[in-house]
Q: What sequence folds into this?
């Protein structure tokens, strides 16, 4: 496997500018909504890599090596030696269609030699939990599924996804990787601290939370956040995610990020399911723990057999982590890079949700407020 990275900035265009790597099989790219909206950058990538499957999305910030930026587009082009690539794309009108969308993607990608799936989804019109469940129902629990939900900074207005097309909203794109020599690693970790009492989810519909302990969920949230933070919801809610506990399995917990509030119904919409009967607890960030979480995710993703050729790591971290860490956000990227090593080409983005197998159960799930890392490499090189 061979890989290289290019980036685009408004003042200089694509760098390096030389026409290298046109034989790429797969191109991943991430950029701000403003940089992707007119489709020009996608068209340039298509001209440069005419045979590649091209997949990308808008972000809450781009990751390139140890740097985090807002204005550039970062892309990685991969030429495999002995791995096939297949792309599946589905429209999604709203979150109610998430399960059906996932089922359709899973059916399109399912095959005996399917090794892994990487998915990018609209970040606002989807229930990530249902999307993941749909894909998993078709391909089985043994296929690792990673990726993330597109971002739009802290605006939460419109997200864009590309799957061999100009980036647009209401789209989900998934890449299937096939063969016996592809090596895909994955890791996910958080680093947030819980606070306040644990409460029972007494009324919810999928990813919409109405009541905790029989009381309006938004009332309780506002009470803990205070008047000033509450006025900034849902944006300020990124700094106070919800940890959700499975009553049937003490080791199974997920973190959920707030996407929207309905002040009339006193309800809250999260990026993934908040099942009735589970318990929930507020969380807040601890800087050192967040950096440690990124390092832990890198260690998980780096475990596995040796590889030949280049290695690519896709880092998908939550926008809430970036907002909390501020100017020190590069510390978590640097911590992950110190584990992945200088030979690993690193790119990624800040998202509205992260997708990866659970560290404990191994079940593929939507995560929030985590650093999730996917590594891609090959065991051998057989193509000349």
A:
């Amino acid at each position: 496997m061979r890989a290289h990275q290019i980036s685009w900035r408004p003042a200089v265009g694509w760098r390096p500018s030389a026409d290298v790597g046109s034989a790429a099989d797969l191109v991943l790219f991430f950029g701000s909504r403003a940089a992707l909206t007119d489709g020009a950058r996608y068209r340039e990538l298509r001209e440069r890599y005419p045979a590649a499957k091209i997949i990308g999305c808008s972000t809450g910030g781009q990751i390139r090596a140890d740097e985090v930026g807002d204005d550039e587009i970062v892309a990685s082009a991969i030429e495999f030696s002995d791995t096939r690539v297949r792309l599946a794309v589905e429209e999604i009108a709203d979150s109610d269609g998430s399960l059906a969308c996932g089922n359709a993607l899973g059916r399109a990608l399912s095959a005996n030699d399917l090794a892994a799936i990487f998915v990018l989804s609209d970040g606002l019109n989807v229930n990530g939990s249902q999307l993941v469940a749909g894909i998993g129902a078709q391909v089985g629990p043994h296929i690792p599924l990673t990726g993330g939900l597109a971002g739009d900074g802290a605006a939460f207005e419109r997200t864009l996804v590309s799957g061999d097309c100009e980036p647009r909203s209401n789209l989900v794109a998934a890449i299937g990787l096939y063969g016996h020599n592809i090596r895909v690693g994955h890791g996910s970790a958080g680093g947030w601290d819980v606070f306040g009492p644990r409460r029972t989810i007494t009324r919810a519909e999928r990813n919409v939370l109405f009541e905790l302990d029989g009381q309006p969920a938004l009332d309780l949230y506002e009470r803990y956040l205070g008047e000033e933070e509450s006025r900034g919801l849902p944006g300020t809610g990124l700094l106070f995610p919800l940890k959700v506990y499975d009553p049937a399995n003490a080791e199974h917990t997920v973190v959920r990020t707030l996407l929207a509030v309905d002040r009339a119904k006193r309800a809250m919409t999260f990026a993934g399911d908040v099942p009735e009967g589970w318990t929930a607890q507020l969380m807040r960030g601890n800087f050192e723990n967040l950096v440690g979480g990124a390092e832990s995710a890198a260690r998980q993703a780096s475990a596995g057999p040796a590889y030949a050729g280049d290695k690519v790591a896709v880092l998908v971290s939550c926008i809430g982590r970036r907002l909390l860490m501020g100017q020190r956000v590069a510390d978590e990227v640097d911590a992950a890079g110190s584990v992945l090593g200088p030979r690993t080409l690193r790119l990624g983005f800040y998202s509205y949700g992260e997708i990866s197998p659970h560290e404990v159960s191994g079940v593929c799930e939507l995560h929030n407020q985590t650093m999730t890392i996917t590594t891609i490499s090959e065991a051998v090189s057989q193509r000349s």
Summary: Residues 287-302 form the longest helix (16 residues).
